[in-house]
């Protein structure tokens, strides 16, 4: 079967939107947000008590700026393209705040609806990450960190992604206890753990499916600016 062309620039846009929408849906489901965004979500919950304007999206690109610095230290190198990852993080944060507002109109009183919101959010998160792995445009710092460090360690990217996700989950639990008291799980719940365990697998599944159906090509001659 001949594969259809999927432009990498389209993958970038769709990946960002998918990730932002998924994070908003999981937050609305209230079973626990994705382990990747959980630390930022907790930072938002804590700081917004004193700074009402400090949104979930703002917490995202603030935390990603810190992670970018850590990555540069670990890799012991710096590329201009890394700065584009922060630009992506800001774009994602802005889209996320819009999505949070949009999904707030979805009723979540019924348990079945919450389950549906969570499942769609979980799958959408994996789709978004997979799409960003297939574009030359710098992804969010989260994905860039996984991509660069797994390459440095010569480890399968999906396996390293699972390790990274579980580490984020543990960090979020520690932050929840520190911010809101021992054994108080805020933002980190059963859904967060499930996501941490399954995300790496589902990302690999969607990646294989996309590569089977599509041939990823550049639509614009901009790759050199991100190398």
Spell out the key features of this protein.
227 residues; mainly alpha; two-stranded parallel sheet; 2 strands; globular
What this model shows, in words?
This protein has 227 residues and is mainly alpha-helical. It has one domain. Helix content is 70%, strand content 4%. It contains eight helices and two strands; from the N terminus they run βααααααααβ. A two-stranded parallel ribbon has the order 1-2. The protein is globular, with a radius of gyration of 17 Å. The model has no long low-confidence stretch (mean pLDDT 88).
Overall number of domains: 1
Number of strands: 2
What is the molecular shape? Answer: globular
Mean pLDDT: 88
Oligomer: single chain
Topology (SSEs and partners):
Layout: E1 4-7, H1 8-29, H2 38-47, H3 56-75, H4 80-103, H5 111-132, H6 141-153, H7 157-180, H8 190-213, E2 214-217
Parallel strand pairs: 1-2
């Amino acid at each position: 079967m001949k594969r259809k062309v999927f432009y990498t620039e389209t993958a970038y846009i769709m990946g960002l939107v998918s990730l932002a929408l998924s994070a908003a849906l999981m937050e609305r489901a209230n079973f626990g947000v994705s382990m990747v965004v959980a630390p930022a979500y907790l930072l938002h919950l804590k700081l917004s008590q004193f700074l009402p304007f400090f949104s979930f999206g703002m917490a995202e690109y603030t935390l990603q700026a810190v992670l970018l610095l850590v990555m540069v230290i670990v890799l012991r190198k710096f590329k201009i393209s890394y700065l584009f990852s922060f630009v992506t993080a800001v774009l994602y944060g802005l889209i996320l705040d819009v999505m949070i507002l949009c999904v707030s109109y979805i009723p979540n009183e019924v348990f079945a609806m919450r389950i549906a919101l969570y499942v769609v959010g979980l799958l959408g998160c994996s789709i978004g990450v997979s799409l960003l792995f297939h574009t030359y445009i710098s992804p969010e710092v989260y994905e860039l960190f996984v991509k660069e460090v797994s390459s440095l360690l010569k480890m399968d990217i999906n396996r390293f992604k699972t390790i990274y996700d579980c580490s984020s989950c543990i960090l979020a639990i520690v932050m929840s206890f520190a911010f809101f008291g021992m054994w108080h799980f805020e933002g980190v719940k059963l859904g967060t753990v499930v996501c941490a365990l399954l995300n790496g697998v589902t990302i690999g599944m969607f990646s294989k499916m996309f590569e089977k159906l599509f041939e990823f090509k550049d639509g614009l001659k901009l790759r050199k600016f991100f190398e």
